């Protein structure tokens, strides 16, 4: 029974541990806070997703995202462009030129950055050491001219953006892939053979042992056996004396052993 309880405890703890571990890695769960507005995907892991933060400035959005998950690097505060760099993605926050009161949140994979961005543009915001990592030390040979979604009509990326379909909105990571844990219910056959926690596998229901093959019984010995055993081990049997023999005084002078 203790082993069965330990199995249930482990099953309950595993999802919690997974959720905690997921909360501590990756990037902010931006898709839960802002609507997905545009998507660009290509082969070789080149993905760019655009989210809109209405009536929020670039510094305000940068602060919100950094509080959700601390980035590896963050650019200095700027009203038009800010960059947050995470292990696998670059967040480019930019003021929407068509609607200056809004901030566009562009989430690019590192592959997308290497193949599209103008490295000289990024040098004005990102440290040289970080750029070396983004471009694998080959930023000078970058042929991209892209400078962000807000200026895509001027500095065109190699791919094209499109309004996300309903399927893309549902299946798109945004960024953080949320981990979910589940407890699989035992099959009926397995319940019958191995479920010992409780009836029908219920943790809070008392186990029904009426049909179990592992029930114990107390069997009273038969009369014949009890009579034999009582002669051998009864506490009322007179023990044999080991005291010295008693001498009987008389003319016969016999020594009689005490019974």
Question: From the structure provided, what is the oligomeric state, counting identical versus distinct chains?
Answer: single chain
Helix count equals 8
Tell me, what's the shape?
elongated
β content, as a range?
Answer: 5-15%
Q: Which structural class is indicated by helix and strand composition?
A: alpha+beta
User: Which sequence of strands runs across the widest sheet?
Assistant: 1-2-6-5-4-3
Q: Could you give the count of β-strands?
A: 8
Distance between the termini: 56 Å
Average pLDDT score: 72
Q: Please compute the radius of gyration using only Cα atoms.
A: 41 Å
The helix content, as a percent range, equals 25-40%
Order of helices and strands: HEEHEEEEHHHHHHEE
Segments where pLDDT lies below 50 for 5+ residues? 15-25, 174-199, 201-207, 223-235
Give the biggest beta sheet: 6 strands, antiparallel
Signal peptide: 1-26
Biased composition (Low complexity): 143-152, 221-238
InterPro entries: DUF4247
Biased composition (Polar residues): 249-259
